[in-house]
Write a structure and sequence with these properties.
With about 350 residues, this protein is an alpha+beta fold. The chain folds into 2 domains: about 140 residues, no CATH class; about 150 residues, Immunoglobulin-like, CATH 2.60.40. It contains 6 helices and 23 strands. Strand 16 and strand 17 form a beta hairpin. The longest helix has 16 residues. The radius of gyration is 33 Å and the shape is elongated.
Length: about 350
């Protein structure tokens, strides 16, 4: 007869770097080991509370409800106690092992990327806690986790090691830039934008304390198909050649009254002007825009923000611009820049060798 460990798995349901807590459970149930240990024992009286619970669980749902309704409060408490006493539960130390997540990859088609800084050099803190719950559940605090980490729980029992799957840390959510009261007016050759406010929400996933710190908000558009008189250079987005920055501000987070675990970073009212030729705002071949946005929020030496630059618009697909692209392609061909590509596309005719039964080589 082959014995098995009583605790078949340990699982992590949440690892929070903001509250520095880890939640999960060590499986607590009548395992194979429990069954082997009790096979040699005399059968229990079928009228006991434990057998009564097994009988109730074997019935259908309606019967379960009807049976439980007829129980007195003392009977319910006794059955719960008996049930817990018949469980094999883990009570002991649990260690949390951490590793750095691989760098985030750019999202296809949007050129967006999460920003993760390199981890600090030095000895990693030892994260340990203690499980002491009748059902093996745990919510251990006073740990030390960071964004962009993966964590697994580890316990050792009589020389055996049981580990959970890797779980990603979370803790804070950073929203996109939200603009309130945007108004756009156009005059001959200019477009005026005005907004009452733009803001970013930083909220805790589980904690009640409002996040603090500063948030940088950068937003604007690139108009590559038009002539922009007041274009700006944006080092964060070098592909934006005809860029207009609406705002670029670093502001302090402020708690929201009546909302636990939530803070706002606000620009306040702002205005921006785009100066160009009159047709740049009305012709479909010229008025297309490539929006860009960057939000930076540093927490534990990690930037939890994001950035994106959408590099395609309706003007990119307009007939005139498609023709211009074809023209540029022809110019490249004349200059010999496509010769290497052309060589790869040429298919050679297969040669037949009659001496070997006409095989193709």
């Amino acid at each position: 007869m082959e014995a098995t460990l009583p605790f078949k798995n340990i699982s992590l349901t949440a690892v929070d770097y903001y509250t520095n807590t880890a939640c999960g459970s060590v499986a607590a149930f009548k395992s194979d080991w429990y069954k082997l240990a009790t096979q040699s024992q005399a059968p229990q009286d079928q009228t006991t509370a434990g057998a009564a619970i097994a009988s109730v669980l074997a019935k259908n749902k309606a019967a379960n409800i009807a049976s439980m309704v007829n129980l007195s409060q003392s009977d319910v408490i006794k059955r719960i106690t008996d049930f817990k006493n018949n469980l094999i539960t883990y009570k002991g130390e649990v260690t949390f092992i951490t590793k750095r997540q691989p760098p985030a990859l750019a999202k296809s088609g949007v050129n967006a990327q999460k920003n993760a800084r390199a981890p600090l050099i030095g000895k990693q803190p030892e994260n340990k806690g203690y499980v002491n719950n009748p059902f093996g559940w745990f919510a251990i605090g006073n740990l030390d986790f960071s964004p962009n980490q993966e964590v697994k729980a580890h316990i050792e029992l009589e020389g055996f090691v049981i580990e959970s799957d890797w779980a990603e840390t979370d803790g804070l959510l950073v929203s996109e830039i939200i603009t309130d009261g945007l108004q756009v007016t156009r005059n001959l050759g200019t477009e005026n934008l005005a907004a009452d406010n733009s803001f970013v929400i930083v909220s805790a996933v589980r904690g009640d304390n409002a996040p603090s710190g500063t948030v940088r908000m950068l937003q604007g558009v690139d108009m590559p198909h038009a002539t922009i008189n007041n274009k700006q250079i944006v080092p964060e987005f070098p592909d934006a050649k005809n860029a207009i920055v609406f705002f670029d501000k670093t502001v302090q987070l402020a708690p929201v009254a009546g909302q636990e675990g939530l803070s706002l970073a606000q620009t306040g009212a702002w205005t921006s002007v785009i100066s160009s030729t009159p047709d740049a705002f009305v012709l479909p071949a010229k008025n297309g825009r490539h929006p860009f946005e960057k939000v930076s929020y540093d927490y534990k030496n990690n930037d939890l923000g994001f950035e994106y630059f959408i590099d395609e618009c309706h003007s990119c697909r307009s007939p005139q611009n498609v023709i211009d692209r074809i023209g540029k392609l022809q110019d490249m061909r004349l200059e010999g820049k496509l010769q290497n590509v052309a060589k790869k596309m040429i298919k050679q005719t297969p040669k037949v060798n009659p001496g070997f039964g006409g095989g193709i080589r």
